[in-house]
Write a structure and sequence with these properties.
Helix content is about 30%, strand content about 25%. By secondary structure, it is of the alpha/beta class. The protein has a domain of about 190 residues: Dipeptide transport protein (Rossmann fold), CATH 3.40.50.10780. The longest helix is centred in the first third of the chain and has 21 residues. The structure holds zinc ion.
Length: about 280
C-alpha cells in the first residue's frame, strides 16, 4: 500500500496561535517541531501496519517546515518539500492508494476551531464548490476522489474532525489532538499522548483502506462550479484578470470545469494572484 500524507501545521499538537505557524516569528520553531511530531507519529503507525511506501507532502505556507533530518528514518518514506507546487497541498497524490491529511484545520468561519481558515487566511473569505462551502479538507478530498483515491485519516482539532466526518461519513478515521475554546486557544493532549492517538489512528486507517472501507468524498457528476470570495475587491480585481474567470460581484469570481484537479489548480492560481 502506498500512502500520500498532506501535512499542514495549524492542526498539530499544541499549536494554537498564528505566530507559531509563521516563519518570521520566533515561535515558529515550536510549530515546525509539533508538525513533525504529528507526522512522525502517523508514519510510525502506518509503517507498523505494513505500509509499503509513504510520500509526505509538506503542505503549510512555504512548504519547507518539516525538517528532513528529523523525520523517522525508514527507506519506505520520502518527503516532498518546497513551493510553489501546481496542486499545492495535494501535489504528488496521484498513484497513491489512500491519502492522509495530518495537522489539518477547519474551514474559515468555523466557531471553536483552532486557526480556522481556507487556504489563505488574509485572502480567502470563502470557497463554494457546487453550492457547498468547502475548506481545505473538502477541496483536497475532492481532488483525491477525482482519481478514486479515498481519504483514510484526518488529524487536527475537534472541529476539523467533525468537518471531515460530515463530508465523508463515519468510515473515515479521525484523530483529535486538541479542542478549541476560541480561535487561538485550545485544550491540548500532551505530545506523548497525542503520539499514541495518532499512531493508533494511522494503523486503523491502513486496516480500513486494506478492507476497502476508507471513503471518497462525493464529487457528483463531474461538472464543477467554484465560487471564490475574497476579503476585498482589490484582491478580486487581481484574480479576475485571468481569462476564463467570471466576476460575479465585487469580491467573488466564478470558474467552471470538468475535473477537480483543474479546479484545485484554479484555487492555487486565483489565490496567488489575488494575494499579491
Ligand atoms: Zn497551514
Amino acid at each position: 500500500m502506498k500512502i500520500f500524507i498532506s501535512a499542514d501545521m495549524e492542526g498539530a499538537t499544541g499549536v494554537v496561535q498564528g505566530v507559531q505557524t509563521h516563519h518570521a516569528e520566533k515561535e515558529y520553531v515550536f510549530g515546525c517541531k509539533m508538525q513533525l511530531h504529528d507526522v512522525n507519529a502517523v508514519i510510525e503507525g502506518a509503517l507498523d501496519a505494513g505500509t509499503d511506501e509513504i510520500l509526505v507532502n509538506d503542505a503549510h505556507a512555504r512548504m519547507t517546515n518539516l525538517n528532513i533530518e528529523e523525520m523517522s528514518f525508514d527507506s519506505r518514506v520520502r518527503l516532498l518539500t518546497g513551493s510553489p507546487k501546481p496542486l499545492s497541498m495535494v501535489q504528488g497524490f496521484e498513484s497513491s492508494d489512500v491519502a492522509f491529511f495530518v495537522g489539518y484545520h477547519a474551514k474559515a468561519g468555523t466557531p471553536r476551531a483552532v486557526l480556522d481558515h481556507t487556504i489563505s487566511g488574509g485572502v480567502v473569505y470563502s470557497i463554494f464548490l457546487n453550492g457547498k462551502e468547502m475548506g481545505e479538507t473538502g477541496l483536497n478530498a475532492a481532488v483525491c476522489a477525482q482519481k478514486d483515491i479515498p481519504v483514510g485519516l484526518v488529524t487536527g482539532d475537534l472541529a476539523v474532525c467533525a468537518e471531515a466526518k460530515e463530508l465523508m461519513g463515519d468510515a473515515l478515521v479521525t484523530a483529535c489532538v486538541k479542542t478549541a475554546h476560541t480561535r487561538m486557544s485550545a485544550d491540548c493532549l500532551l505530545p506523548e499522548e497525542s503520539a499514541k492517538v495518532l499512531k493508533t489512528a494511522a494503523a486503523e486507517a491502513v486496516e480500513r483502506t486494506r478492507a476497502r472501507k476508507s471513503p471518497c468524498v462525493d464529487i457528483g457528476d463531474g461538472r464543477f462550479e467554484l465560487l471564490l470570495t475574497f476579503h476585498n475587491s482589490g484582491q478580486c480585481d487581481q484574480a479576475a484578470t485571468i481569462p476564463g474567470t467570471e466576476r460575479i460581484d465585487g469580491r467573488t469570481v466564478r470558474v467552471t470545469g470538468s475535473d477537480m484537479v483543474t479546479m484545485r489548480r484554479w484555487t492555487v492560481a486565483l489565490i496567488s494572484l489575488g494575494g499579491r
